[in-house]
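Protocol step 4 of 5: obtain the predicted structure for the target chain.
Materials: sequence only (see below). No template structures provided, no constraints applied. The aim of this step is simply to have a reference model before the mutagenesis design in step 5. Sequence pasted as it appears in the construct record:
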Amino acid sequence: MEFIKPGVNIDFLGKRNIAFVFSGLMIIATIFLLIWKGGPNYGVDFSGGVVVQVKLEQKTSPADIKKALRSIQLEDSIVQGFGETDDAEYLIRVRKTDVELTGLSDRVEQALKAEFGEGVDIRRVEMVGPKVGDDLRQKALFAIFYSLLFIAIYISGRFELKWLMSIIMAISLAFVVYITSGFGVSVTWLILVALIVTLALCLFLNLKYALGAIIALIHDVTITVGVFALTDREISLSIIAAFLTIVGYSLNDTIIVFDRIRENLRRFKRRPFDQTMNISINETLSRTILTSTTTLVVVLALFILGGGVIHDFAFALLVGILVGTYSSIFVASPILLIWEGKFGRRGRRKRD
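Step 4 output (structure tokens):
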């Protein structure tokens, strides 16, 4: 099915400077929000603490629930609505790690009954210790990092047939990560160093497709984290799974565009590189619109009808699909063009 008629040639790359400014502002806003809020809003999964899910007979405000919890010294808990809009169901997140878990369910139930009367139902109580939370956070960050690393290696070999360069990059990165971790730096700094080294190696080893894909993936995840910071949503294990799903979706879209560019470079050897890229993007536009729209419809249905358990997961996918579709056209492809303009003229002349 084709929505775009053959021969249509929208000048996407001509708008690349506007796209770069827009993406730059979004990333700066994300960094500002994270600094302002003291980092990502980690959920109990990562920060440790207790989650109590409670259902009341009537809908009430989180402030009233906090007031009711004052009698058991839990008034500083985070209270959020849970489930459908009309449900009187709430999540009480206790960030204290020294709270006595034994009898906590009964204490919360009694405190709420004293304020709201009978009809208080404690659905579940979960606790995550600070050590477990810290381990989970590190493993989650490593999962994102290694997914980006292996993607860079795969794209380098798949598109540029430079498996040897990919192996060199993998060995170099493993060496840098090993040396850096020996200094006892945190996993966040370790990942930041590794990403900088990855981008530097892509430049040095002339892995332009990998460079474009990696920057687009970092762009997508960063902006999604920024939207979560803006909406004050928590980053939990399920959200990390959503981030990895976004990485896979965005990469799939980028690969389709890159694959067509690679094919057209062989067909249109005499055409300027930017024209070939625009033709390639236009040729894949119908597929991009169809895939993104159908996926968005499914995720939107999950977001609206899926209930509170997967609400934030679906929200992350909604943002990620929109940003990933945008980045495959306006971020990954223009980086290839910039590379060709700055470093690829010699290679272009050789092809001619």
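Step 4 remarks: Strands lie at 49-55, 78-82, 89-94, 121-128. The CA atoms of residues 304 and 311 lie 8 Å apart.
Proceed to step 5.
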